[in-house]
């Protein structure tokens, strides 16, 4: 069946859909069509069962090694080891499952955009039915204020206008016609169609339903969202790669040491296998996935408190790496509220303060507030634009909204900003606005005289006022018009004509000549003031902002220049992008900051081109048309107030206050979170390194294992879940938002980090190994495991204070700023005392109660680690400074 309904005449559509534009369908036909086409709703996406979501959190190469270790210990009869290892794996999965929980709600979001009811004509009778009961061929009646229930080809359109910003990105209402269009017409130019999910701002209409459910334009966008491949975040990529690398190293090391132990030390193979399992468990940072999830979850909570709702955990970290933000113009960078900024009369220019539809502001001349009564031409202009007007502005829920056409609404607001009441005169006769003649006129009575007031496109009004081409007067007005269009403003002209008192009705012949031009109004969709500040902050942080809009290129460039978004004069249109190859798009996206007249496909192309260039891209948007690009981008950012539900559900982040500045705050938080994640890794991995070093040393030297697999697991989990948690609360370091974004290729473990991890691991492991023979001699084998366990825990506790400040001295004025560090330290000391002296805990971990003298060694090792690492940081910092 055809999708080019806009290019077919009505007789062909009636024949193809087997309907009648006057009588509508009969019930039998409705039933048959519903069986064939289904209901007017989008198909439900099959949901992943909860148990499967939970199981997916075991899909990690490090967890696989743990589970293999659990199976081996079970076969060897070490059931406590098995239980503890499985418990650790389950706890990790549980934390991931609870914290992540990313739900695919995009389909529900689009479904919510379908209107609930529709008025149809069936068998010549009108019926109010559920929108989901519509079928292709139904004849539908629509009026101002309705949400369009399906894709409709218009049969009649009486002053009908549709708000299609959410679908096409066009901020002004679209005048609807019924004529047949060229089959090349793009979505935004299909004026004989109404699209599902858009709304009507003016007039009435009648049309034939041509597409329902997933066959509508919204349904096609939904399908393109399902087809879009989601991108893995930098953190997920790097932790996956790190996990694979460490698992290969662990397995190779385990095999080599098992062979070495059998050949050179003639160990019992079962005992040796348990020791090798101890090594594997020691080297695996099993607490890392859990602590990463917790840190990201705390970042999510922090952002929610600052009006940015994150829908997925890793997206928090991705924000910190964003290099380009692709932003829609309408409603994101601008307010989506038309505003008159200037009024020009024959002798004067007036500035208008205030933005949006709220009637607060004033008219000023030469920076001084004016009395409108002192300027008769201005008074007449304001009376004209308020009278020749079918819209109104009202306050609803503490927000000023326009009822009707946005351009007319801002003219009402303009009149209401005057220092005196401007009358809205009664229209005795009118010529409605039509795009074919581009003006609207009204016959009124004012102060005993009959007048025709008119507003419309300046070029038409200039001719009606008899301004000859090339005349000084015409040149003056055209210059004023050009100045405003160059700033991205729409210009409306108003004129007046006094007519005979006997005039009762007017037609086009009454206004073609003899009009007196009153003035011009410059209208703009104003930028958000806070968005200008946000763009400035983005530039400081090394982030590029690109405007991708459905609006006209002159308007787009003017707004971009006004917001200091670009210093270039180049704008690329959607049709130009369509004609380019992938390589050309990758090049153009480097050179151009403003893209106009774009389609949903273009937005997707641009995001993909940026990603091909190695950029980490964010896409902000609020309309249905933004959804595929929101989902494809590394991070999609939807507007919470004006955003459509589908945009919110397709994105990773929703701005509660629609404030572009909130993005900058979120980026700041993203950078803080990433820094703290790196600090956490720098903290956790030396534990694993020290344990692995001790186990390898024992195997190579042929001495007794200092720790069992269960004891090693305990140390790993207790340091990760308590001490490491304190690092999540570290405040952002100074100068973080003045640095450029980190590269997506930047390694999680830099060469310096690798050095620090190895250095601290050898420092802790070497200290314990050095004192090990003395402990054996002094306290016996039974107590040595307990001392070793505490030595590892205390070394890490002190090391946490090293890590809080990456390269500078830790004891500084911010030392006590993070209270969580001291709280978790106290908790950890209490836990260590409990596992040492509470009988059932002793048994579980195979520990012994130790004396005060024996506690001396863990504390001294911890303190020694802190001092030596601080000296290392000081020396390293000096070396880096010289370089």
TrEMBL record:
GO terms for biological process: intracellular potassium ion homeostasis; intracellular sodium ion homeostasis; potassium ion import across plasma membrane; proton transmembrane transport; sodium ion export across plasma membrane. It is found in: Endomembrane system. The chain crosses the membrane at residues 62-95, 245-267, 273-300, 681-705, 711-732, 753-772, 784-801, 822-843, 855-875. It comes from the Bacteria. One of its GO terms (molecular function) is P-type sodium:potassium-exchanging transporter activity. It is a multi-pass membrane protein. Residues 4-78 form the Cation-transporting P-type ATPase N-terminal domain. The keyword Ion transport applies. Keywords: ATP-binding, Ion transport, Magnesium, Membrane, Nucleotide-binding, Phosphoprotein, Translocase, Transmembrane, Transmembrane helix, Transport. PANTHER family: P-TYPE ATPASE (PTHR43294:SF20), SODIUM/POTASSIUM-TRANSPORTING ATPASE SUBUNIT ALPHA (PTHR43294). Belongs to the cation transport ATPase (P-type) (TC 3.A.3) family. Type IIA subfamily. This is Carbonate dehydratase. It comes from Halolactibacillus halophilus.
């Amino acid at each position: 069946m055809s999708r080019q309904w806009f290019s077919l005449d009505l007789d062909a559509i009636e024949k193809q859909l087997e309907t009648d534009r006057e009588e509508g369908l009969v019930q039998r036909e409705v039933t048959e069509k519903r069986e064939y086409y289904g209901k007017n709703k989008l198909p439900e996406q099959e949901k992943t069962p909860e148990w499967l979501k939970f199981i997916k959190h075991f899909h990690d190469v490090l967890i696989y090694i743990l589970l293999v270790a659990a199976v081996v210990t079970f076969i060897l009869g070490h059931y406590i080891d098995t239980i503890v290892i499985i418990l650790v794996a389950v706890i990790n999965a549980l934390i991931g499952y609870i914290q992540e929980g990313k739900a695919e709600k995009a389909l529900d979001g689009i479904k919510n955009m379908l209107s609930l009811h529709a008025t149809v004509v069936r068998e010549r009778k009108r019926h109010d039915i559920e929108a989901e009961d519509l079928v292709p061929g139904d004849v539908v009646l629509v009026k101002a204020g309705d949400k369009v229930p399906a894709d409709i080809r218009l049969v009649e359109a009486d002053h009908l206008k549709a708000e299609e910003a959410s679908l096409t990105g066009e901020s002004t209402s679209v005048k609807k016609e019924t004529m047949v269009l060229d089959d090349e017409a793009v979505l935004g130019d299909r004026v004989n169609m109404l699209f599902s999910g858009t709304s009507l701002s003016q007039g009435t209409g009648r049309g034939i339903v041509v597409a329902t459910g997933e066959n509508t334009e919204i349904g096609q966008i939904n399908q393109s969202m399902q087809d879009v491949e989601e991108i893995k975040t930098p953190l997920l990529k790097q932790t996956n790669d790190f996990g694979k690398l460490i698992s290969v190293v662990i397995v190779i090391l385990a095999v080599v040491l098992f062979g070495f132990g059998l050949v050179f030390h003639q160990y019992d193979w079962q005992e040796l296998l348990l020791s090798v399992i101890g090594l594997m468990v020691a080297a695996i940072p099993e607490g890392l996935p859990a602590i990463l999830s917790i840190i990201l979850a705390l970042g999510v909570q922090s952002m929610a408190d600052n009006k940015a709702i994150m829908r997925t955990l890793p997206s928090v970290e991705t924000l910190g790496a964003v290099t380009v933000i692709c932003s829609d113009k309408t409603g994101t960078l601008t307010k989506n509220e038309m505003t008159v900024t200037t009024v020009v009369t024959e002798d004067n220019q007036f500035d208008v303060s205030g933005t949006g539809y709220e009637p607060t502001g004033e008219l000023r001349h030469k920076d001084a507030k004016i009395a409108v009564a002192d300027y008769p031409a201005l008074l007449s202009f304001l009376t004209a634009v308020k009278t020749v007007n079918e819209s109104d502005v009202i306050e609803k829920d503490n927000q000023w909204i326009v009822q009707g056409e946005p351009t007319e609404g801002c003219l009402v607001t303009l009149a209401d900003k005057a220092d005196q009441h401007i009358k809205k005169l009664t229209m005795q006769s009118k010529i409605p606005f039509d795009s074919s003649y581009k003006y609207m006129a009204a016959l009124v009575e004012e102060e005993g005289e009959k007048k025709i007031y008119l507003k419309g496109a300046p070029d038409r009004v200039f001719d009606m006022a008899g301004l000859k081409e090339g005349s000084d007067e015409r040149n003056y007005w055209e210059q004023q018009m050009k100045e405003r269009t160059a700033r991205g403003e729409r210009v409306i002209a108003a004129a007046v004509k006094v007519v005979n008192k006997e005039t009762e009705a007017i037609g086009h012949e009454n206004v073609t000549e003899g009009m007196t031009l009153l003035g011009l109004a410059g209208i703009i969709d104003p930028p958000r003031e806070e968005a200008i500040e946000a763009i400035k902050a983005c530039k400081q942080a090394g982030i590029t902002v690109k405007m991708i809009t459905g609006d006209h290129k002159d308007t787009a460039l003017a707004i971009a220049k006004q917001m200091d978004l670009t210093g270039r004069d180049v704008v690329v249109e959607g049709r130009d992008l369509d004609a380019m190859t992938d390589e050309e798009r990758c090049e153009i996206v480097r050179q151009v900051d403003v893209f106009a007249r774009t389609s949903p496909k273009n937005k997707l192309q641009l995001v993909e081109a940026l990603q091909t260039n190695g950029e980490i891209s964010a896409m902000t948007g609020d309309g249905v048309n933004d959804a595929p690009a929101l989902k494809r981008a590394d991070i999609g950012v939807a507007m919470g107030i004006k955003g459509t539900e589908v945009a919110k559900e397709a994105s990773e982040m929703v701005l509660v206050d629609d404030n572009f500045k909130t993005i900058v705050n979120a980026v700041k938080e993203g950078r803080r979170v990433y820094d703290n994640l790196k600090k956490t890794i720098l903290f956790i991995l030396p534990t694993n390194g020290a344990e692995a070093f001790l186990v390898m040393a024992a195997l190579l030297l042929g001495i007794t294992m200092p720790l069992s697999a269960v004891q090693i697991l305990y140390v790993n989990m207790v340091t990760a879940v308590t001490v490491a948690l304190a690092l999540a609360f570290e405040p952002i370091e100074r100068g973080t938002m003045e640095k450029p974004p980190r590269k997506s290729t930047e390694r999680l473990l830099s060469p310096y980090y690798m050095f620090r991890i190895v250095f601290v691991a050898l420092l802790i492991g070497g200290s314990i190994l050095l004192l090990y023979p003395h402990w054996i001699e002094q306290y016996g084998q039974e107590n040595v495991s307990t001392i070793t366990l505490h030595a590892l825990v205390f070394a890490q506790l002190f090391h946490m204070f090293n890590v809080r400040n990456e390269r500078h001295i830790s004891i500084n004025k911010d030392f006590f700023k993070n209270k969580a560090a001291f709280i978790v330290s106290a908790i950890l000391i209490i836990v260590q005392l409990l596992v040492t002296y509470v009988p059932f805990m002793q048994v579980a971990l195979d520990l012994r109660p130790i004396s005060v003298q024996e506690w001396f060694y863990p504390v001294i090792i911890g303190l020694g680690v802190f001092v030596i690492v601080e000296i290392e940081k000081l020396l390293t910092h000096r070396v880096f400074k010289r370089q």
